From TrEMBL:
It comes from Rhodoplanes roseus. S-adenosyl-L-methionine binds at residues 132-136, 155, 198. GO terms for molecular function: nucleic acid binding; peptide chain release factor N(5)-glutamine methyltransferase activity. Gene3D superfamilies: DNA helicase RuvA subunit, C-terminal domain, Vaccinia Virus protein VP39. Residues 14-82 form the Release factor glutamine methyltransferase N-terminal domain. PANTHER family: HEMK METHYLTRANSFERASE, MTRF1L RELEASE FACTOR GLUTAMINE METHYLTRANSFERASE. PROSITE patterns: N6_MTASE. This is Release factor glutamine methyltransferase. Belongs to the protein N5-glutamine methyltransferase family. PrmC subfamily.
Amino acid sequence: MDELIAAGATIASARRAIASAFRAADLDSPELDARLLIGHALGLDHAALAAAADRPLSDEEAARVTALGRRRLAHEPVARIIERKEFWSLPLVVTPDVLDPRPDTETVVEVALAAIDAAGPRRAARRIADLGTGSGALLLALLSELPDALGVGTDVSLPALRVARHNAGRLGLTGRARFVACDLGSALAGGLDLVVSNPPYIPSIVIPTLAPEVRDHDPRLALDGGPDGLDAYRAIAADARRLLAPGGTLVVEIGIGQLEAVVALFDTAGLVVDRAPHPDLCGVPRAVMAQQQT
Ligand SMILES: C[S@@+](CC[C@H](N)C(=O)[O-])C[C@H]1O[C@@H](n2cnc3c(N)ncnc32)[C@H](O)[C@@H]1O
């Protein structure tokens, strides 16, 4: 990429050159990635980057942009490089210890909020839990929408819980969010109005075949769902009736092709299951909702 960012290149031309190198390497979202990386290298947000489009890069800036571009060309995801990811419009810190939060997971937030809206006003005291919280993405998105809710995020990874706590602090949500090291919901008392989870759900044998962005950069603990990918759903199903208050809602993210199996697990556990597929933006069934009888 050295030759693509010539000495004295403007921000706009460097951005075009990097996007074109990313496109040639068949990376997803080359323009967006180029913008985010250049903005990070120069410490400029979107608006400032556009305003400075004609400014030439110094040699040192060009070297910094080139170094970040090389990392992306080596399949490191942008969120890993800039250690930031937007989720539900919240700016989250992400480190190698947590899953890079995905837009698909916003489907869980949408489904959970729709269930809450159907039950009553958002301004009501509620107790919510996020099992396998990672960066805190789901819990913090829900707390940002439910101003009177209290929430707990669990994880078996202590470094992940540190990231989630840090994110809660940055978003001013520390007073309403607790983080607990435990296996899914095992350390939680019952009586929860809402339980959400995006558990690890990739069958172990599939992990080596994943894109390098995922396989080499998301924590294995965040991906590996056991032999058939369903281990965490079995555990959640077994504990859901203890965890949920009467009428309480459970929403989980699912992987491709897991809808029927997860619906069956929740049904067998005695929950009232909503069989709707709740598609993500690509039309893939992405969430399953179930409720405790009232
Ligand atoms: C797919 S990631 C989801 C992270 C975050 N909720 C999100 O949606 O971006 C799954 C998370 O569950 C955690 N985890 C894996 N097994 C767990 C278990 N048995 N109990 C609690 N957390 C677990 C992982 O450490 C990881 O942070």
